[in-house]
Amino acid sequence: MGNQNRMSRELESRENNLHDQPWEPPSSIPTPDPQDGYAFRWVRTMVMGLDDARNVSMRRREGWEPVKAEDHPELLLDLGLDGSASKNGLVLFGGLMLCKNLEEKVGKRNGYYEGMADQQMRSVDNNFMRENDARMPLFSEKRAEVTFGRGK
User: Fold this and answer.
1) Structure pTM?
2) Distance from CA of residue 57 to its chain's centroid?
């Protein structure tokens, strides 16, 4: 009897959690099942019907490796492929190829580009404030506000 009450409470709380989540439109590109230690990314292989070997080569040098279709059979169902439709056994979809990279490498790459963006922003701020004139003081206000509809 006590075990049955426990199960009903677990189901009840699970249903409540499902109802609390906001609705999001589905992604047009399927997401692979997560793998510990790896990040996934769709890499462009074609532009306007022409091969984009340069982009693929650049991503490969960054450490992104193509994913084999046999390693992710769940995607073949989402993509409507039977496995034979994938080129060289890779997961391809609409000019994109699924690739994976070590999460550690991806984190370092993201940190590098965040540092570059911060440096550029400091440079812009320094140049902007250098032009300051006492008659028309400048100030740097960095905040954004998004409103929908009629606003406040």
Assistant:
1) 0.60
2) 20
Alpha carbons 33 and 37: distance in angstroms, whole number: 12
Whose tokens are 């993509």? That residue is 79
Q: Long-range CB contacts (< 8 A, 24+ apart) of 54-58? A: 56/97
CB distance 45 to 52 below 8 Å = yes
In this predicted model, what pLDDT tens digit does every residue of 58-114 receive, in sequence order? 999 999 999 988 888 777 765 655 444 456 788 888 888 999 999 999 999 999 999
Answer yes or no: are the C-beta atoms of 90 and 97 closer than 8 Å: yes
Distance CA 64, CA 41 (A): 8
Sequence ranges of the domains in the chain: 35-129
CB 40 within 8 A of CB 32: yes
Structure tokens belonging to residue 125:
């701020």
3-state SS assignment for residue 50: strand
